[in-house]
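Objective 1.3, modelling of assemblies. Example input:
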Amino acid sequence: MNRKLILPSAIAVLLALATSFLLNQDSTANLLFHIKNATAVGRDLERTVDLFNKLYASFYVTGGDSPGLNAFPAADIIKRRIFQDINLWRQRGQWLIHDLHVQEFRRAEVLSPGWAVVETAETWDLWLRNIKTGLKTGRKTNLIQVRYHLARKGDRWIVVEFEVFGKDEDLPEISESLV
Amino acid sequence: MKKLPRVAFLLALYTVSFIAIVRLGIFSAEPPPFRGVLMFWLVLVLSLAVFILLLASAAAYRDRMDRARWFGLFSVGLLVTGLWASRFADYRIDVVLTEGQVYESDEYRSVGLLSMGLFSTVPKFGLTMENIALEDADDGSAGGSRVRARFQLRSPGAPPRMITFSKGMPQYQRGMFLKIRNFGYSLRYAMKKSGRVLESNFISLRVIPSGSEDYFRLLGPHTFYVRYYPGRSEGGVERPLKLKIARNKDIIFRGYIALNQDVPFEDATISFEEKRKWVEVSISRPWGELAAWTGLVLCCISAVTLLAPRTGKHASS
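Predicted structure (tokens):
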């Protein structure tokens, strides 16, 4: 290559880098994610699911009246599904109380830079509570496995889908439609 | 190197670097698909600018142009023309069809639409899904990895034509490419309350090979998870469907069921009344894209030719 072209060529490549940086949303967060180590990312994923479950339970306990909605790491469609359920219970004059007893993380894996899967074994105690009398009835222990699908939004993960399985069920291959 | 070719070279380097950086996804959540990067407006404008500069260079230094350089210029021209033609004229749609289903392109013009050029029109055609056969095991029990579908294709001013093709064997018909992308079973569910059918529809599920699980949701908070085991029976009764109903995280039903069996949940019942097969067909008119890919391959060949050690009267230019 002509020596006179080396500096302008380097500038052209740097300009391309700068343009790409400026045109992407959350460029800094994405760049930091790419250089983060796998252990730290795994911890982030588990923390996200932990927070998801805590707030999930609190929404049911309070009948959806919770200040945690903005912190809830979930896509709008998940929030809508949960609150739709809570409202259906409310119409029956009941709350379905969720109490998380066991939460065991079995897998936390980033499948592509913007998509991760976390699998857990969970034990929930469920009660129906009458809204007027406060009486608890119909206790049920729900032993399940859950596969959470998480999408990365800048520097945080949110749950975009979760699949529920029985405690003894074989987890199927990850559905292509979710990829 | 003179000024004009130098600017063209630097702009080309900037464009190629930009495409590579965006494709690598260093600054994005996910690396975008290569096609998406090439269709990005900045890449289109830059590639056109590079081509214009190369044309101007060729005109200014006509005496230095040899066959390899003309070939390079032609390759870049084909690539740029293909990119712009794709942006303005290509048409790509994915259509999911269940056996017996009729599809008219102008009725469902946006369902499954992947891309449509700014000046492109929806081609007028109709498809009727006649029959789908799983080639390695008709019941899908052996995995059903090969599928053969038979369609009726209709287009204005031409007689209907029956076409049959398999996955992995695209067809070219009446100016369009047709390709099978996916397949599975469609189940017709019926939601009933007090014996009255509230809602009934086919739902396409990816439950091949057997044991694969897929799910669907209706308006409520329930998720219906389905697995299909062809030929499975219990006590002489065929129960090929494994159904699980969850209300968010609460599993309220789990078990093997037969077709037409009413499964009670909450204050309603659900049953699966009919089983058919579905395929997802990709239909495209990708002339711009084909030209762009051809241009890209020729550009690579041209780059190798131009960068290789050269002899003859233009070797030092």
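The longest helix of chain A spans residues 38-61.
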